[in-house]
Amino acid sequence: MTSTQVAREPLLQRAKRKAERVLGPAGIFFKGFLKHPAMVGAIVPSSNRTIERVLSVVDWEECRLFVEYGPGVGTFCRPVLEKLRRDGRLIVIDTNPDFIAYLQKTIGDSRFIAIHGSATDVEDIVKAHGFDHADYVLSGLPFSNLPEGVGPAIMGATHRVLRPGGAFLVYQYTARARDLMSQFFRRIDKGFEPVNVPPCVISWGWKE
């Protein structure tokens, strides 16, 4: 590390802490993006329009377990909990411990479970919490940026963990994830939300 890099490091740390204080959840999200840009995939959370559109296919009366990969600062968590039945559960899985710690601290709902781990382990996580399957799985993970083999592993595990009639809800900023989804899901409904930064490509993969 050069002397210039050494000098910059404290400045970057101070900037991250200030962003957290001033921006609140957005600051936490921005910090996560700076640390793991390939895993977060966007510099700002999804818009309300995107949230409503992505969740529009969910039959909330029949949803007992909703799973989310990469929840970030809870942009989708709170709307999901508002709609989720009183005896339902929301399990979120993230590899970023900062996001998990933030969610555990700020969401005080007994139906909410935040797990620091990998989406590839979703089957074991679901079983460990007393469920045989998930009704819906949501993901904003940037599949095109994941390490080799991780994307297919997540897709395969997701298809296996879903109940028949359940769906994998995927929002991305390109349509490339659909090629991977099509290897596991025969029916994929397509959507697009322009009121988002950047505009959002939505795919709903149904387990038949």
3D architecture notes:
With 208 residues, the chain is an alpha/beta fold. The chain has a single domain (48-207), classed as Rossmann fold (3-Layer(aba) Sandwich), CATH 3.40.50. The protein has helices at 3-23, 25-35, 37-40, 48-55, 77-83, 97-106, 122-128, 150-161, 177-181; strands at 65-69, 89-94, 112-116, 134-139, 162-172, 187-193, 200-206. Strands 3-2-1-4-5-7-6 form a 7-stranded mixed beta sheet, sandwiched between helices. Strand 4 (134-139), helix 8 (150-161) and strand 5 (162-172) form a beta-alpha-beta unit. Helix 1 (3-23) runs antiparallel to helix 2 (25-35). Residues 3-7 have low confidence and may be disordered.
